[in-house]
């Protein structure tokens, strides 16, 4: 992220500044015949410390889950009458405008400064397919079932990180993967044929989203969260605009158009709040609150579609969420490598 890169430059420059400061003090004390005692503590005493605002970060994450759940419910409602490409085009375009209003007053056009345009394009293309799959799944199965399967994305991200980033899986990760996939099978197996077909689309989304997560993990070394968000919205809007002639397009009525725009605004605000949450507090503190999306999805599914959660859905969701929380706790417990 940009903050991380800036911090890295600051820490790289700070030792030189401290050395010149110590040499200046030494020259003054040399005239008096004695030198101050220089220790590692005295050199590190001015090192800036990041102050986390955990309660505020939690509130932002909770707010983001409400926005995402409401956006998913609107997508499920709209995809019944309109093609997924049309629903996603209006959502992406409105999200792009929303994120631009929230981000660009602070960053200006410099938010688009990058040397990894090809990586942004590849990531967004994969994400476009993933979003198409999940919106199609919304039209075929209960909202909570899709959200529960989507929570398996960190499991797939672990697999892709092992293959692409050469990260070691280890015993704990391996057990979590196996148990998590069993939870996905519980959620996906029961129900009619349409449910199973929808589950296949939902699993496909989770697989692709996991690959995107692994790719973003590598891109955050050079790209800020604002740059990642803006390029994502720009490319997604372009991809779905190009897809419109290939699928049925009906100009929405006034009410439907307003709902599509609202869908994009909710998604854009959710993206921004999610990013703000992670900038205010460590993932280990705010990450567990992301799973509240399932609570809102269960409530919205019951309220608007009369979806009563089955025992298999609840049990599978609990397993998937539990493995996700375990992976979050496991990764957060690792100590970073000492700086050279």
Describe what you observe in this structure.
The longest helix is centred in the first third of the chain and has 29 residues, at 2-30. This protein has two domains: 1-50; 55-332, no CATH class. The protein is mainly α and 340 residues long. The radius of gyration is 24 Å and the shape is globular. It has 14 helices and no strands. α7 packs across α8 and α7 crosses α9 (193-219). It has helices at residues 2-30, 40-44, 54-78, 84-107, 117-138, 143-150, 153-164, 170-188, 193-219, 225-243, 254-280, 283-286, 292-305, 311-332. The two termini are 20 Å apart.
Layout of helices and strands:
Blueprint: H1 2-30, H2 40-44, H3 54-78, H4 84-107, H5 117-138, H6 143-150, H7 153-164, H8 170-188, H9 193-219, H10 225-243, H11 254-280, H12 283-286, H13 292-305, H14 311-332
Helix pairs in contact: 3-11, 3-13, 4-10, 4-11, 5-9, 5-10, 6-9, 6-13, 6-14, 7-8, 7-9, 8-14
Short recap of the structure:
The chain is mostly helical. Helices cover 76% and strands 0% of the residues. Residues 1-49 and 335-340 have low confidence and may be disordered.
């Amino acid at each position: 992220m940009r903050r991380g890169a800036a911090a890295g430059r600051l820490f790289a420059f700070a030792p030189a500044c401290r050395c010149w400061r110590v040499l200046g003090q030494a020259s003054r004390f040399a005239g008096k015949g004695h030198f101050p005692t220089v220790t590692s503590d005295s050199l590190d005493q001015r090192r800036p410390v990041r102050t986390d605002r955990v309660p505020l970060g939690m509130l932002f994450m909770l707010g983001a889950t409400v926005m995402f759940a409401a956006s998913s419910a609107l997508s499920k409602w709209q995809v019944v009458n309109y093609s997924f490409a049309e629903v996603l085009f209006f959502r992406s375009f409105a999200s792009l405008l929303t994120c631009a209003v929230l981000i660009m007053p602070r960053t200006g056009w410099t938010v688009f400064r990058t040397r990894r345009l090809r990586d942004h394009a590849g990531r967004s293309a994969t994400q476009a397919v993933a979003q198409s799959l999940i919106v199609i799944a919304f039209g075929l199965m209960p909202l909570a079932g899709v959200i529960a399967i989507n929570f398996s994305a960190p499991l797939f991200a672990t697999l892709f990180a092992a293959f692409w980033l050469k990260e070691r899986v280890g015993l704990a990760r391996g057990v979590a993967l196996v148990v998590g996939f069993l939870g996905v099978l519980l959620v996906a197996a029961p129900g009619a044929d349409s449910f199973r077909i929808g589950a296949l689309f939902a699993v496909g989304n989770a697989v692709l989203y996991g690959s995107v997560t692994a790719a973003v993990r590598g891109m955050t070394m050079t790209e800020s969260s604002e740059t990642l968000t803006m390029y994502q919205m720009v490319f997604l809007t372009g991809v779905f605009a190009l897809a419109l002639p290939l699928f049925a397009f009906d100009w929405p009525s006034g009410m439907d158009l307003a709902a599509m725009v609202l869908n994009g605004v909710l998604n854009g605000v959710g993206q921004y709040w999610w990013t703000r949450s992670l900038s205010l507090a460590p993932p280990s503190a705010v990450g567990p609150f992301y799973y509240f999306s399932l609570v809102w999805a269960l409530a919205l599914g019951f309220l608007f579609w009369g979806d009563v959660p089955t025992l298999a859905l609840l049990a599978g969701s609990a397993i998937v969420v539990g493995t996700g929380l375990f992976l979050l706790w496991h990764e957060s417990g690792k100590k970073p490598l000492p700086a050279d």
